[in-house]
Design goal:
The structure holds 3 protein chains of 3 kinds.
Chain A (H helix, E strand, L loop, with lengths): L4 H12 L17 E5 L7 E7 L4 E12 L7 E7 L7 H16 L12 E13 L5 H13 L2 E2 L25 E2 L12 E8 L2 E4 L3 H6 L2 E8 L2 E9 L11 H27 L5 E3 L2
Chain B lengths: L8 E2 L4 E4 L1 E4 L3 E7 L3 E7 L6 E7 L3 E8 L4 H19 L7 E10 L17 H9 L3 H5 L1 H9 L11 E9 L3 E9 L7 H7 L8 H7 L1 H6 L8 E5 L22 E8 L5 E5 L6 E4 L10 E5 L2 E4 L5 E3 L7
Parallel strand pairs in B: 4-8, 11-13
Antiparallel strand pairs in B: 1-7, 2-6, 3-4, 5-6, 7-8, 9-10, 9-12, 10-11, 12-13, 12-14, 15-16, 16-17
Chain C lengths: L41 E5 L7 E7 L2 E12 L9 E8 L9 H4 L18 H15 L10 E11 L4 H18 L8 E9 L4 E4 L19 E9 L5 E9 L5 H30 L1
Classes of the chains: A alpha+beta, B alpha+beta, C alpha+beta.
């Protein structure tokens, strides 16, 4: 998006006053309204779709495959596809590596182990139909929902196949399947990534396209189980007028993500529990 | 007089001097950023508010020049406003204040060719005083040029008002397409030229070296790394502009001295030769196949060996 | 004519197999472990590459990095009032890239060549490139260079450390090259890198250790480790231009503040050295 100098200066000024005045009248810690649904793809283990108010839309499908553990370098594979964007572009690769970086650390890998020899390999395929702002936040929400709604079929064959070679067999009954992320006390929720924009002394979550255009710097902050987790990274949301930040900004972004992260998780969990029906949530 | 505590050499980002300094209360020194420096607002240790400070933007030696006005009266008026600004800072009677203005710049090691050469390290006011009576300072008094100096950033990119040397690439009826080889008083533009003309990175002193290294320049291959420009037919000369024929003004391969009139579009700078000292300075007859030609008048060049006469829009050689 | 295998090229009849002499593995000198609160020594040099506008070479331990900068050079296409900054980081092809968790997944895809026969950048390379780019975007006076681009090429010749420590060295190398290229910048960027071990509340400055390859099932997880690299503009009120945190632990506010502080100290220390080198080089 190209802004005129007047638009730019108006946006910059209004976003740098205390408290910031955002163009869509949100407060600094408020997300844009999203429309989210999950488990709607019959052929995948888990799926979700999230639409943003600015027209951004993403679909994530989680599929699993039974693999020989020793042949695989990793049990999780993430792929991001964006319309009209090359697969090897810096943009996509950075999205993937940010997502991988956080998912790998907070993934219940032990649940993927089937037998001594076999495990599930999880393929997370993300498709961004359209996006106006930096799609990482959107994608992260979408992956969260997809993973939360992911079900793995129940193993019926024996777990110990070290001596006797045996292909794993599964219970046909989908009702008997287990959830990959079971809501329980010692089970973590999938991690989330938040994008935070920085202008002047202000930080604000989930920047829209115009806000990104004038922001001086940005932060990607990881969040899991009510706590900030790495990776935390600075990133340039626009390549104009970027400036350095101070530790104060980072700390501010921290407390903001910590506070609204909980709200977001709560809202997303309601979407998952109400399963198939389309649910609109506004924080 | 206090000795200014200005570093002799600077690295990028190094604060050099605040924009105002007082000397025992009787005069104020005002500093203006020149080449290789920028005015920024920074937090200073013992203050909470941001203070305007001149910082270095490149690595090099710090040079200070005093700005001297020819017409004192006119200058005084100008300074009035700035003095008022200064007054707030100083809490003193403004009538007693004498404002001396200095231009501070950072000169990289490799460059020798600047608007005024100075040999001495003008580090303190004593030396600056010497500089005042130096003949070099005469150049500074010309106000026009001074402003040019201040506005110039160190970047070796062509800017509006720069005198550039270009090579004619292609002619059409309406304009001549050129490539910019060098900017006067700056280092050579492109990498190939830089390594071909001079082995060290010292800037070629253009007028003196153009003859000796001209063959190198002409042989230089086009690797698409040079900035391109256009001389439109109406910018060739300042009189009788609508009757200009490009073909009677330039030929491909000519080296032309131009002034940049606009940054132009994405690919081309807009250049002009509409001045006596601008135009073709170097050309060979027969489209480059013949010998070097010399200007006879402003629109003809002659080849001394063959007596061939060709039409060009020539620059006044002296 | 005797029966000969005509399907292959056979060597002369009297050929004998090559015997390699027993090469004794050189006993590597025991590298003295660097104290945890010390910054490792580095060797720096600038202006080695002659056909670029600025270059720098840096050696820290067994890690060798070379950066060359081209620019400002003309762009094609439409008018822009500011320079475009582009960064490309490449490891020499035979190097094993720091095997941080992020690079493991798509390592197989990284070998695919693109249309012009060049190897695509791997995720790690992309990640380093974009970190450097975002640092220098806030540092260079891009408005001084209209209609042009500034290209940074980072070549990693040898690597013997973890990812974030490598990034730390790359930042310094780029800063030096930027000074050598005489590109006007707001400041010289230096950065600090440290590892924080939660268990004993211990900080290792400039950690040189390589990361162990993690097991596929993520079993070898060292508990409570945070890696941090923060890049500063130290003469500009210590503005932060780049921030990158990896690890597997939660991030507390007070810890983070302390870590940034320590990174800043380290950055200042390195800045002093670089300043000294630069001023020395002027004489």
């Amino acid at each position: 998006m190209i802004l005129s100098p007047a638009e730019r200066s108006y946006l910059y000024d209004s976003l740098s006053v205390q408290p910031p005045v955002r163009p869509d009248a949100r407060s600094a810690h408020q997300f844009r309204p999203i429309e989210a649904s999950c488990s709607f793809l019959p052929n995948s283990n888990g799926s979700s779709r999230v639409r943003l108010s600015d027209g951004g839309e993403a679909i994530v499908s989680v599929k699993t495959q039974v693999v020989l553990t020793k042949n695989e370098s990793s049990l999780i594979s993430i792929d991001v596809d964006i319309n009209k964007e090359r697969d090897d572009s810096n943009f996509i690769k950075n999205l993937i590596s940010s997502l991988e970086s956080i998912l790998l650390k907070k993934f219940p890998i032990e649940k993927l182990k089937l037998t001594e020899r076999y495990s599930f390999k999880v393929y997370i395929d993300c498709f961004i139909l359209s996006h106006n702002s930096y799609p990482l936040g959107l994608l992260s929400l979408c992956i969260y929902l997809a993973l939360k709604s992911t079900r793995l079929p129940l193993l019926t064959s024996t777990v110990n196949d070290r001596e006797i070679e045996e292909q794993p067999t599964f219970n046909d009954d989908w009702e008997a399947s287990k959830k990959l992320f079971e809501p329980s006390e010692h089970q973590d929720d999938p991690p989330l990534l938040f994008v935070v924009g920085i202008i002047g002394n202000n930080v604000f979550i989930d920047p829209s396209n115009e806000e990104e255009e004038v922001s001086e710097n940005g932060l990607i902050v990881g969040f899991a189980n009510g706590e900030i987790v790495p990776p935390v990274q600075s990133t340039n949301l626009s390549n104009r007028d970027s400036k350095g930040i101070s530790p104060k900004h980072i700390l501010k972004a921290y407390s903001m993500v910590r506070n609204c992260g909980k709200e977001v998780v709560k809202a997303l969990n309601t979407v998952v529990s109400s399963d198939d029906d389309v649910f609109t949530s506004i924080y | 007089m206090t000795v200014l505590d200005i570093p002799k050499v600077a690295v990028p980002g190094q604060p050099l001097v605040p924009s105002f300094l007082t000397d025992e209360g009787d005069s104020i020194s005002k500093f203006i950023p020149g080449q290789g420096t920028k005015l920024e607002r920074l937090l200073v240790q013992d203050k909470n508010s941001k203070v305007p400070v001149i910082i270095a933007t490149i690595l090099g030696k710090v040079k200070i020049y005093e700005r001297v006005y020819k017409e004192e009266a006119e200058a005084e008026e100008e300074e009035e406003e700035e003095e008022k600004e200064a007054e707030g800072k100083q809490d003193q009677e403004q009538e007693e204040l004498k404002v001396r203005t200095f231009i501070i710049s950072v000169v990289p090691k490799s460059s020798k060719n600047y608007y005024y050469q100075d040999s001495q390290d003008s580090q303190n006011l004593q030396k600056l005083k010497e500089l005042e009576i130096d003949t070099n300072i005469e150049e500074v008094t010309s106000k026009n040029q001074e402003d040019v100096i201040i506005n110039k950033s160190l970047s070796n990119l062509p800017q509006e008002g720069d005198i550039v040397l270009v090579k004619i690439l292609k002619l059409t009826l309406k304009q001549a397409f050129v490539e910019i080889i060098a900017i006067e008083n700056k280092k050579a533009l492109d990498h190939s030229a830089r390594t071909l003309i001079n082995n060290d990175s010292a800037p070629p002193s253009l007028y003196s070296s153009i003859a000796s290294t001209s063959t190198t320049i002409l042989q230089q291959v086009d690797i698409g790394e040079n900035f391109k420009g256009i001389i439109r037919s109406q910018d060739v000369r300042s009189t009788d502009r609508d009757r200009v024929k490009i073909i009677e003004s330039f030929k491909p391969g000519d080296i032309v001295r131009c002034i940049v009139i606009s940054l132009g579009d994405g690919t081309n700078y807009y250049l002009s030769t509409a001045r006596n000292d601008l135009g073709v300075i170097f050309a060979k007859s027969h489209g480059g196949a013949g010998e070097i030609m010399y200007a006879v008048d402003w629109k003809t060049m002659i080849c001394i060996n063959t007596g061939e006469v060709e039409q060009r829009k020539c620059a006044k050689p002296f | 004519m005797n029966v000969q295998d005509r399907r292959r090229l056979l060597g002369p009849a009297n050929a004998s197999p090559i015997v390699f002499s027993d090469v004794k593995e050189k006993k590597s000198k025991k590298i003295q472990a660097k104290p945890d609160d010390e910054i490792s020594k580095m060797f720096i040099n600038t202006g080695l590459v002659k056909n670029c506008d600025g270059s720098a070479y840096i050696e820290v331990g067994n890690t060798i990095i070379q950066v060359s900068i081209y620019g400002p050079r003309p762009i094609r296409g439409s008018f822009i009032d500011k320079a475009i900054l582009s960064t490309e980081c490449r490891f020499l092809p035979y190097l094993s890239q720091p095997n941080d968790s992020i690079s493991r997944l798509t390592s197989s895809t990284s070998l695919i060549t693109n249309y012009n026969g060049k190897l695509n950048l791997s995720n790690i390379e992309q990640k380093i490139s974009s970190y450097i780019e975002s640092c220098f975007l806030s540092c260079i006076y891009l408005e001084n260079y209209p209609k042009s681009s500034i290209d940074i090429f980072i070549k990693i010749l040898s690597v013997d450390t973890n990812l974030l420590n490598l990034v730390n060295d790359v930042v310094h190398c780029c800063s030096l090259a930027m000074v050598d290229a005489q590109i006007e910048s707001k400041d010289l960027i230096t950065s600090g890198n440290l590892r924080y071990l939660k268990s004993n509340n211990h900080i290792i400055m400039d950690p040189k250790c390589k990361d162990k390859d993690k097991d596929i099932t993520n079993e070898v997880v060292e508990e409570g480790k945070l890696d941090l690299v923060v890049s500063f503009m130290n003469s500009r009120n210590d503005e932060i231009v780049g921030f990158w945190c990896e690890g597997n632990d939660t991030l507390e506010d007070d810890v983070l503040e302390k870590l940034i502080e320590r990174c800043n100290d380290m950055s200042k220390e390195i800045r002093k050295n670089i300043n000294f080198y630069l001023i020395e080089s002027l004489e």
